[in-house]
Amino acid sequence: MNSSLKQKAKESTDQAKRSTKKGYRKTKEGAKKGEEKINQVRQSSAWQKTKGVAKKTATIAGSHLATTKASIVLSNKEAELMENLKSKLNQKGIYPSKSEVLRAGLWSLRNKNSEELEEAVKDLFKIRQARVL
Residue 33's domain spans which residues? Predict the structure, then answer.
């Protein structure tokens, strides 16, 4: 009886190994087919045109089309102010992101002279960035 249990366990293990290999092969084949499709699309004229336009757009320096991602830290009161500004705009049927509200603030500061800029930032306090893991 002991040997029949061992035999069944071995057969079960062998079947699992074959099934795993078969699944691995299918996954590998699927990935290869997907890669081939991607390469076909990349060779198409539409993709090449889009790629060219994207490169041109990315090279426009100093334009509002070129973007840079930045991380900023706000105090609780500043974050609350951001939400209040968004709420006021929402009531008017305008639904900006936090980024858009911040960018609007930057655009409103762009024509200030140095004394006005100094006045605008004088009362801000430094926020020490802490990393949260």
Answer: 1-41
CB hemisphere CA count around 76 (13 angstroms): 0
Does any domain span residue 52?
no
For residue 63, give the DSSP letter: S
Token readout for 50 is 């889009």
Integer angstrom CA distances of residue 44 from 47, 54, 58: 5, 16, 21
Q: How far apart are CA 58 and CA 68, in angstroms?
A: 11
Give pLDDT tens digits for 93-104: 999 889 899 989
Q: How many CA atoms lie within 13 A of 18 on its CB side?
A: 6
Per-residue pLDDT reduced to its tens digit, 39-52: 776 676 666 666 55
Number of domains in the chain: 2
Burial of 96 (0-12, 13-18, 19+ CB in 10 A): middle
Token output for 55: 């490169």
Amino acid type, 50: T
Q: Residue holding tokens 């691995």?
A: 24
User: Tokens 């992101």 belong to which residue?
Assistant: 97
